[in-house]
Amino acid sequence: MAKPVSIEVWNPNGKYRVVSTKPMPGTRWINLLIEQDCRVEICTQKKTILSVEDIIALIGDKCDGVIGQLTEDWGEALFSALRRAGGTAFSNMAVGYNNVDVKAANKYGVAVGNTPGVLTETTAELAASLSVAAARRIVEADEFMRAGLYDGWLPHLFVGNLLKGQTVGVIGAGRIGSAYARMMVEGFKMNLIYYDLYQSTRLEKFVTAYAEFLKSTGEKPVTWKRAASMDEVLQEADVISLHPVLDKTTFHLINKETLSRMKKEAILVNCSRGPVIDEVALVEHLKENPMFRVGLDVFEDEPYMKPGLADMKNAIVVPHIASASKWTREGMATLAALNVLGKIKGYPVWSDPNRVEPFLNENVRPPAASPSIVNAKVLGLPVSKL
Ligand SMILES: NC(=O)C1=CN([C@@H]2O[C@H](COP(=O)(O)OP(=O)(O)OC[C@H]3O[C@@H](n4cnc5c(N)ncnc54)[C@H](O)[C@@H]3O)[C@@H](O)[C@H]2O)C=CC1
Ligand SMILES: O=C(O)C(=O)CO
Question: ipTM higher than 0.95?
Answer without folding.
Answer: yes
